[in-house]
Write a structure and sequence with these properties.
The chain contains five helices and eight strands. The chain is α+β, with helices and mostly antiparallel strands. The protein has a four-stranded antiparallel sheet, with no helix packed on it. A four-stranded antiparallel sheet has the order 5-4-7-8, with no helix packed on it.
């Protein structure tokens, strides 16, 4: 009958280290495969497990530590606190923005709103020039919206013509809009524009040709 050779001290030490778990992962994997095929080495490992098991008898079982908060801290680190100086700058910027908004509000309140424009009454138009006429109860606002002003040395003059009455000059149509007071006639009436010398007609009625006209009605 053949006897099993006694294990060497080196292999006995390797078995003990395996049970203690002091080898690296690669060496441990090799020894695990060896245990499956080497009965002698497997017996050595079993003997050491019995010997070392007594070491645990003196220690009570302890629950495994909860490492979840540490794992979360590494995976989801908290944002770095912003220095107070930045908050100070943010406060200054926010304050400036509020002050600017307040200033705009004050300006909007202080500046009176423009009165709405009167409705368009009519237009006086030709191939060379177009005037828009807006009217309320007692004022006409006449604005050139297309074309050119009168030729050099001349001026456009606006007239109110009422049936059965003498023409009435409402003023000169130059670069700025003309605002003229008037009383809306109750009978048939018209607006006309004549071409006059600079400064207007020297007469009480048009002296130059009438270039624009519009009957308004009564």
């Amino acid at each position: 009958m053949t006897s099993t050779p006694a294990p060497s001290q080196d292999e006995d030490l390797t078995a003990a280290e395996y049970v203690l778990g002091v080898q690296d992962a690669e060496t441990r994997a090799v020894l695990e495969r060896r245990i499956k095929h080497d009965a002698v080495f497997a017996a050595q490992v079993g003997e050491w497990e019995v010997r070392l098991a007594r070491l645990n008898d003196e220690y009570a079982e302890e629950p495994a530590p909860n490492l979840l908060h540490q794992i979360e801290a590494r995976l989801f680190p908290k944002p770095i606190a912003v220095p107070r100086k930045r908050f100070a700058w943010f406060g200054i910027a926010a304050g400036a923005a509020i002050a600017a908004a307040f200033a705009i509000a004050v300006v909007l309140i202080a500046v009176p709103a423009r009165a709405p424009l009167a409705p368009v009454l009519t237009t006086l138009a030709s191939a060379d020039v177009t005037y828009e006429v807006r009217a309320d109860s007692d004022t006409l606002l006449v604005t050139r919206i297309a074309g050119n002003s009168a030729p050099e040395g001349k001026v456009h003059e606006l007239w109110l013509i009422v049936s059965g009455e003498a023409p009435v000059s409402l003023g000169l149509l130059e670069e700025a809009p003309l605002r003229a007071a008037y009383k809306p006639p109750t009978s048939l009436w018209a607006l006309t524009v004549s071409l006059e010398p600079t400064g207007g007609t020297p007469r009480v009625m048009p002296s130059g040709p009438v270039i624009l006209a519009r009957i308004i009605g009564g």
